[in-house]
Design goal:
Blueprint lengths: L2 H9 L4 H29 L5 H11 L3 H4 L1 H13 L1 H10 L1 H20 L5 H30 L6 H29 L2 H32 L1 H7 L4 H5 L1 H17 L11 H21 L2 E3 L3 E2 H4 L3 H28 L11
Antiparallel strand pairs: 1-2
Helix pairs in contact: 2-5, 2-8, 2-9, 2-14, 5-6, 5-16, 7-8, 8-9, 9-10, 9-14, 10-11, 13-14
Length: 340
């Protein structure tokens, strides 16, 4: 389908597939941001003491399970709004999807069992929680890398997927450390600042390598990024990303990061993720499967999409409302861990 054909289809009023692509992208970005920080916190537990681990779990306890609702929404929209793409995507990603679900399941089991286990067994469940967090994070990064390349085979696409997997783990760690700076106090908060400083260079290097590698492994992305005037229009994305990364590092170097500026490292990292999401959306659209299937080719019938839209109009505001309510109720510093 040529660009002229795409323009003709889009202007003909067939905008529902584009709307659902946007909703699916929003759901997945919300998941990455919300579950990303608690995956990061889970991985940082490997560096914490027993008492600190309890506080870290308490900081994510009211949120982590509900955060995964956005993943269910995103995959659900892919299944019902783009059924042709659903089979291709999940078929190509069957193993990493299974590993991600295994990691998330391990986290859920460990979260409930760690506090109820005897002292000699609690360390085991802590390690299960850490391992589940790392496994889910790596699997998500690998899936993203494979998706961006359109599931291409060969050494370079596989290395690219590995690069994104490691980079996403580093980004989750930075996000998790930023969350701990907001939600904790005292020695743990100061340790979170040091953790953020330690992982910040890896995030910067990862973003730089991905920026270089992405146009290398995808001719479609290369033609979009470097064609004029698109190149000029895209410049704000790397500039804002760079500014956000500098702001994160500057805030970490400030003594006020444990007080007035405690939200800046987390907020700056969120901006980096948002810019990555915008860049990814621009690079992929109008494809649901890169270079193989557009949103219009993969979408359900228009009649089905109208029915799905009615359900989505009820579901998305409900999830948004609950999310805002939960974060409002449990705002402030994390208190002592309690399983009432």
């Amino acid at each position: 389908m040529t660009p002229t054909d795409l323009t003709s289809v889009a202007t003909s009023g067939d905008w529902l597939p584009v709307l659902f692509m946007g909703l699916m992208g929003f759901a997945m970005l919300a998941y990455v941001l919300l579950d990303g920080y608690d995956l990061g916190v889970g991985m940082w537990m490997a560096r914490a003491s027993a008492a600190e681990r309890d506080t870290m779990v308490a900081s994510i306890g009211p949120f982590w399970d509900a955060n995964e609702t956005w993943l269910v929404l995103g995959v659900g929209l892919l299944l019902i709004a783009f059924p042709k793409a659903h089979g291709v995507v999940l078929g190509a990603l069957y193993l990493p999807v299974s590993l991600m679900l295994l990691g998330l399941t391990l986290r859920g089991v460990a979260f409930d069992f760690r506090v109820k286990a005897r002292d000699e067994h609690q360390l085991l469940w802590n390690r299960v929680f850490i391992a589940g967090s790392a496994l889910a994070s790596l699997a998500q990064g690998w899936m993203l890398g494979r998706y961006v390349t359109g599931f291409a085979e060969g050494l370079w696409p596989w290395l690219f997927a590995g690069l994104i997997a490691l980079s996403l783990v580093a980004a989750y760690l930075l996000l998790g450390a930023g969350w701990l700076i907001i939600k904790t106090e005292g020695a743990l908060q100061r340790r979170a600042v040091q953790w953020a400083k330690a992982v910040w260079p890896a995030v910067v290097v990862g973003i730089g390598l991905i920026s270089v590698a992405t146009p290398w492994v995808s001719e479609t992305v290369r033609s979009r990024w470097f064609a004029l005037p698109d190149f000029i229009a895209l410049l704000p994305i790397p500039l804002v990303t760079l500014g956000a990364l500098v702001a994160v590092r500057s805030s970490l170097n400030s003594k006020l990061v444990v007080d007035r500026f405690s939200a800046l490292p987390f907020g700056g990292t969120v901006v980096v993720f948002l810019m990555a999401g915008v860049g990814l959306a621009y690079s992929l659209f109008p494809y649901v499967v890169m270079d193989r299937m557009t949103v219009w080719q993969a979408a359900s019938s228009r009649e089905s999409l109208w029915v799905i839209l009615a359900g989505t109009a009820l579901t998305v505001p409900a999830i948004l409302g609950y999310t805002v309510f939960a974060y409002r109720v449990f705002r402030g510093k994390a208190t002592a861990l309690s399983y009432g």
